[in-house]
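Model it.
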Amino acid sequence: MPVHRGERWLGHALQSVAAQDCAGIELLILDSTDDDSCRKIADEFKTRLDITYLHLPDVPSWQAKTNLAVDHAKAAYVAMLHQDDLWLDNRSAEVRRAIAAFPDAVLFLNPSYIVDDAGRRLGLWRCPLSSGRLLDKSQIAEHLLVQNFVSIPAPVVQKRAWLECGGMDTALWYTADWDLYLKLVSHGPAVYCDRPSTAFRIHGNSLTVSGSRNVRDFERQMQIVLERHCELVPSSMLPKTQRRAKASITVNCALVEASYGSAPALARAFGTVAALGPAQALAYVRDSRILERTLPRLRARFAGSF
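Modeled.
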């Protein structure tokens, strides 16, 4: 758990873990907050959770903190829980069940509820993948290269594979997790379990909202992932996958511009999708989860909570 000024949310996140069967769960909290507000919250849970707390004010990025936590982790599998996200009551049971059923998998995925700042459920964020079976790199990359459809609290990763692929690229402030998942599927199969066990919180102070103000840098972050991992897709499928991926980048950037008041950006987004043609436009909607990602944010805005 990478933490920075997380006192508003941290107690809720820790409570969601404490509500589980916590046997065998080690929680590593790496905190760069410049005071002890988050440490005090973590201390309140030390009798209920196996917590290792490290105060690292000189390590501000969540990507670097996460890599350090994985290096320190004792377990064979690791998961990320950010300070504003949540585990559902079935989380540990679902993870244990999946690992037991698919011991060869290096990456486990699941849907996440999208919740607002008060924890109200706004929608379900799913992956466009077949559930309950091993998926190889091409079966994942054909869809994942188009858009990161994985919410941060969802993945469970085999630690060995994380270390072998080099972990997170700390130069990627927005797409480090997306890049990681595509690196991981080169090291072994993935499994998608279609029962939600995590919740992803959206609010006005989130990294996506604050960081994406630099649209050109935001765009480059996504282009890097496409350029690095296009070889994972079979050559016969690559041209169409690349078209959807490039359209997705254009749409994502247009939505950011529109959120800051650029009305023409929305027209550009619709035009980009329409230019794909009917079949590829539908495939784009499937892979990008554009409706599942944007409609909850609109609900939050209309409700005045975002």
